[in-house]
């Protein structure tokens, strides 16, 4: 439960969304005694903390006071969550005091085909009572970079496309790069990254692999701005990295240029974006094949 479009501002208390939510929790608790609304508003406060920060000491103090001082005792009754992997219970080895955080890891030959079915459960008594529970599944594996399929969700998605810049009498034009696109050494490639999100994010990291046949045009790292978003670009040997302090919800388009430097065949690699402090919010794109035929030597 929350109020639509709370925008932070320096000049009014009503423009501070976290403090406003905390004050409304106190009002709903003391004035109307609406326990259901209090718990719903506390859930919004916690969900905001997953992908963003409580900006400033005032917001943090008010949020903590509302969460611990109003409604049910979140720390006094930790959520009883069980995980079933492949139809078998996977008991946690250690549970963090207070938060109830735990993790289950399986590596190498411990992983079986049936382990692809994972189920999270809370017992009926705890599910009907107080407390919140969030979880995530992370899968790491080794494969050829060209075989990695696109993975996205409604919360966060990224799409990567390659274009070659052609100059004609009508001016510069962008031609989409496909398997049949004829490239040659010296061509300028434009990498277009389209990021889509359903919420405001803070502290996002984006890493875009670069085809081994290309070299970056802009090799200097630094801050960039565009479309109401600011980010820091770091050019690495095999990738370009983007760091966002804040990205509003919606669709954002990022572009940068590469120069074809060698002949051969390679994969453009995929672009991956994830929340720095909530890695369960992540996505990666597919890759594009890049082919540059070599120049024929005269006999």
Written description of the protein model:
The protein has 299 residues and is an alpha+beta fold. It folds into three domains: 13-69, no CATH class; 74-141, no CATH class; 145-292, Immunoglobulin-like. Helices cover 17% and strands 34% of the residues. The protein is built from four helices and 16 strands. The strands form four sheets. A six-stranded antiparallel sheet has the order 9-10-11-7-14-15, with no helix packed on it. Helix 1 (17-32) packs antiparallel against helix 2 and helix 1 runs parallel beside helix 3. The longest helix has 17 residues, at 35-51. The chain is globular, with a radius of gyration of 24 Å. The model has no long low-confidence stretch (mean pLDDT 86).
Search tags:
5-stranded antiparallel beta sheet, 299 residues, alpha+beta, 6-stranded antiparallel beta sheet, 4 helices
Mean pLDDT: 86
What is the fold-level CATH name, i.e. the topology of the largest domain?
Immunoglobulin-like
Rg on CA atoms, Å = 24 Å
Q: Overall 3D geometry?
A: globular
The largest sheet is: 6 strands, antiparallel
Number of helices: 4
Low-confidence stretches: none
Give the number of domains: 3
Note the gap between the termini: 76 Å
CATH class of the largest domain: Mainly Beta
Helix content: 10-25%
The strand count comes to 16
Q: In the CATH hierarchy, what is the architecture of the largest domain at level 2?
A: Sandwich
> What series of H and E elements makes up the topology?
HHHEEEHEEEEEEEEEEEEE
Structure classification: alpha+beta
Fraction in beta strands: 25-35%
How do the strands of the widest beta sheet line up side by side? Answer: 9-10-11-7-14-15
CATH superfamily of the largest domain: Alpha-macroglobulin, receptor-binding domain
């Amino acid at each position: 439960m929350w109020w639509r479009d709370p925008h932070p501002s320096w000049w009014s208390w009503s423009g501070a969304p976290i403090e406003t939510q905390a004050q409304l929790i106190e009002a709903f608790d003391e004035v109307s005694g609406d326990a259901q609304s209090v718990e719903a508003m506390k859930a919004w406060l916690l969900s905001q903390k997953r992908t963003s920060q409580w900006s400033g000491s005032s917001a943090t103090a008010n949020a903590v006071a509302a969460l611990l001082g109003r409604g049910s005792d979140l720390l006094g009754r930790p959520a009883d969550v069980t995980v079933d992997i492949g139809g078998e219970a996977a008991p946690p080895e250690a549970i963090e005091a207070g938060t109830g955080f735990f993790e289950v890891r399986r590596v190498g030959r411990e992983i079986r085909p049936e382990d692809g079915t994972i189920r999270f459960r809370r017992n009926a008594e705890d599910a009907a009572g107080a407390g919140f529970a969030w979880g995530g599944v992370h899968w790491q594996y080794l494969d050829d970079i060209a075989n990695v399929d696109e993975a996205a969700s409604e919360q966060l998605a990224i799409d990567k496309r390659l274009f070659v810049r052609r100059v004609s009498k009508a001016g510069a034009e962008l031609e989409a790069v496909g398997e049949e696109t004829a490239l040659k050494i010296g061509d300028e490639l434009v990498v277009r990254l389209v990021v889509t999100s359903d919420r405001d994010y803070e502290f996002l990291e984006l890493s875009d692999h670069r085809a081994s046949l290309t070299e970056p045009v802009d090799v200097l790292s630094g801050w960039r701005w565009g479309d109401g978003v600011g980010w820091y670009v770091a050019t690495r040997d095999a990738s370009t990295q983007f760091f966002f302090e804040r990205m509003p919800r919606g669709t954002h388009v990022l572009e940068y240029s590469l120069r074809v430097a060698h002949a051969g065949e390679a994969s453009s690699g995929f672009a991956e974006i994830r929340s720095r402090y909530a890695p369960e919010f992540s996505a990666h794109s597919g890759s594009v094949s890049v082919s540059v035929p070599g120049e024929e030597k005269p006999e």
